[in-house]
Amino acid sequence: MKYIEPVKSVVLFLLVMLSVVLTFMIWTYTPDYKFIEKTEGKEILIGPQKEMKDVIRPYKAIYRFDKEFTGTVSNSAMVDIMEAFQGWNILDLMPVDNNLKADSVNEMIRTNNSMTVFFPGEIPYSAFNTIFQFADKELPETTFNRMIIDWSKYNNKELQVFFLSGNNELLMRSHVSLENANQFVRNIIEPAKTYSTFKEVERDGFISLYIANDKIESTKYTYFIEEKPELFKDVLFTNLNNVVRTDESATTEKYHDGMSRMVIDSKAKSLTYVYPAAESSVRIEPSKLFTDSFEFINEHGGFTDDYRLVSSSISNNQLDYQLYLHGLPIYSDAINRITTVWGDNRIFRYKRPYFSFEKDISSEKEMKELPSGSEIVEKIKKLNNIDLSDIDDIVVGFYLTHDRSQSTIVTLEPCWFVIRNGISTKLTPDILGGVKNGLE
């Protein structure tokens, strides 16, 4: 018994020293940041990252020569136009009319020595900051979907440019000081003299439509597609250890981590991701909305194919990007758009296809001849359920179908489509007597 007290003292001393050592180790501990960077900081890219100009490309341009229109929807021509814009000095951008009438727009487009560039969606001015050199430091918080370029004074190295908005009926005007005006005319204007002629479809009280006069030759494609739903799961959830999967049906899978959820639809080959806590009714300015949406998608390489901004609902903080191929929009019964709804400082809803085009099957290519735009217009005039005054545009696009026997193969059939309020209706010879199907 006489050794109990000394033993207790020794044990107590060792415990005190151990506590001191552990405290010192905690205070002086430095984590291995290199290890953290390699394990937790790994960047996942689903596709190549892109620039803003890649998603705001126009889809059509028409030119006025001696009271005649020519035009093109060629993808290479649209690329050339965007490259020609690069570095333009936009001077004295100012509002001209905030209650623009359709007749005024039609007269401007009919003006000789002018070209009109059509964008599929409303573009914030700030999105062109990487293309144009704006003299004004503060750009208007508004949008445009057409540009009318007057080149009549190009010999003075000056162009007059009008920006038109279809949503808020606003017209802005500016001048461009262009050192290489001759090059612009040589590369962009002169080739347009050889383009197909376009017909103006006048509509009383509405902006005219502009349709190709000639028959359209296009190609039917068959593509292998690549599906990447797992990569989207890895990107969208911050802690994969907390993610739980449940099978809702034979074609539907649901993932959730307690804060967010993602639903995979293998039939439509689409996903929907929602972060409910971020829901917000606070309206975001167009410039910030576009920047936030673009950066969110681009950070994980989400523009896996040719996606272009086509519509916006500023009141809902929503932007839509349409899938394109060879310069033509793609529509189907499934989802062929990326939709983002921005919330409280982060994404609230993200809906999109999870596939991308991998390789076309050359042996399956087939040339198709479509009726001219003028023929289509005459047929539409005879329909009872489509009024020309309700149409935003009439375009050639691809109708996408999935191969039922092989899930990784899709077919893209060229067709005429009517666009009404952002909804596309396929026009086929057998249904032009009564069109009923609406497509995204």
UniProtKB/TrEMBL annotation:
- Identify the Pfam families for this entry: YycH
Source species, domain of life: Bacteria
Question: What does the record list as coiled-coil region(s)?
Answer: none
The protein here is known as: Regulatory protein YycH domain-containing protein
* Source organism (scientific name): Lysinibacillus xylanilyticus
Q: Where is the Regulatory protein YycH domain?
A: 6-422
Print the keywords alphabetically: Membrane, Transmembrane, Transmembrane helix
Q: Could you list the residue ranges that cross the membrane?
A: 12-30
